[in-house]
Amino acid sequence: MLDIADLHVRLAGRAVLQGIALTARAGAVTAICGANGAGKSTLLRAALGEIPSTGTLTLNGRDLRGQTAAALARQRAVLAQDTQSAFAFSVAEVVTMGHEAGASAHDPDVVAHSLQAVGLSGHQNRPLQSLSGGERQRVHLARALAQVWAPRGPDGPRWLFLDEPAASLDLGQQLQMMALVRRYAEAGGGVVMVMHDLNLTAHVADAVAFLIDGRVAAAGPPSEVITADLLGRAYGCTVAMNTAPAAGPWFLPQCCAPSQ
Amino acid sequence: MTVATLDPLRGGRKPGLAVWLLAGVGLASLLSVTMGAAGVGPFRLAAALSGGDPLSLAERVVLFDIRLPRLGLGLLVGAALAVSGTLLQGLFRNPLADPGIIGVGAGASLGAVLAIVVGGLMPPAVRALTGGHLVALAAGLGGWLFTVGLYRIASAGGRTLVATMLLAGIALGALAGAMMGVLVYMADDRQLRDLTFWGMGSLAGATWTKLLTVLPLMGAVVVLAPRLGRGLNALALGEAQAHHLGIEVQRLKRLTVLAVAVATGAAVAVSGGIGFVGIVVPHLLRLAQGPDHTRLLPHAALLGAALLVCADLVSRQIVAPAELPIGIVTALLGAPVFLWILLRQARAWQG
Fold it and tell me: By the CB < 8 Å criterion, does A100 face chain B?
């Protein structure tokens, strides 16, 4: 379980996050949503320990602060929004970096399995620089998967933290990635992701934490959180809400108030 | 070393590269020992070793007191410079980084120039204390002080800002250049000659004492550097990603700067300014084996050692019986090779 309570973050003298409470279960997909500037990425970075924060921050019951990088790397993997590589590593070399950092480093098949999972088998010798943006994002997803290959370990569930994982993918790739993420959660792993696309979020997430101005404005299952009223408050937009039989709520944007 | 545990998937893996490099080091060493103004040629050496005609006293002096320490120093300095360059390029995530950039080179040069120009003014007792190693000591100390200063400037709140360090290195280098200018202006003709030769680098003064003094420093860096390889690989994806890959990033950066300061400081102290080894070697190796630092670092040590011994051989042969400073040879050979690599890469990018 990822447990965040009364979390405050100040950046450059400004209170960016104020009293955040968020609980993410293993075995479920938890999405963090909100308008640009609401603090989504800051919350993810604070939850990862990348920036200083005050308040409760535990992963699998252990305080996140003060754990070594190596210990954390065996419990969770992180996919950034955009990962630039300074040198032309091959696809296999990048995925191997995740593999060697994780708890399954003893299993030599993990790299191949991870590449297969993201549909990049046979590309292992290509240099990273020769890939398209979407392919590169999938390579880094394979790296994260290789790091937390077994969703459940002896010391608790393993976690994937994803920062807008679908941003550089096309529609088909987005759905494939979300299916992968769902499978990981259904196998007992934990998934926490920052998402922009609310329709996709409603389709894949079990729980949504919706931020407005550095506070959690609503949290719970997508059908309860993603409402016309909340979207109006967060984005200043009017939307037509609907419900798909299998996938939960979806909406069509109608019109938006001019921004101040 | 984790060299053997690398992924089994990599089809382009070249286990033979280390063997070729070792063979290169061996061949360069053999040539370096057997070629020179006074002759202990390869056949003469083979005959003596196989129990035939033993070496004369003069031959033994040439071999054991001149050529072997010089060979040892060449191997060591070459390996240290190449490994330092590789470490810095990994640290700065920039294939153009070079020990000259982070101030080690500038600090060491300033120290040496100071020792040459002002050293003469010191009382003979102080000079006797340093046993003729005043220039080397001052160079090592200067490199060390500059690196520590730079590291302090670029560190704030327990974090080291790599971009600040790069820019501060350039500023400190300019400052050192200006101060050296003042000293050069003050220097007399004999000192100017010393300065010029020191700046061009040379392995000519090699002795066993010199070699054994710097061996622990440079040897430790060369042998231990591959352990930083996995961290530097992860660092290529950015500091945050490196942390999430289990790397203690601050510790990695601190160790890398320390290793470079020690190895480059010691190298500059014993052999003066030898350029281009640190920048060309990692580039050549990346073309041959890819950017994986766990293999790049041991291979760089081998290639650097072989290249510097070859450059030394050229510097001794080309104007024999005199010697060309080795820094001229490495620059004459290194600069075109470097340009060729850059052009090749530029063309590859254009498709």
Answer: yes
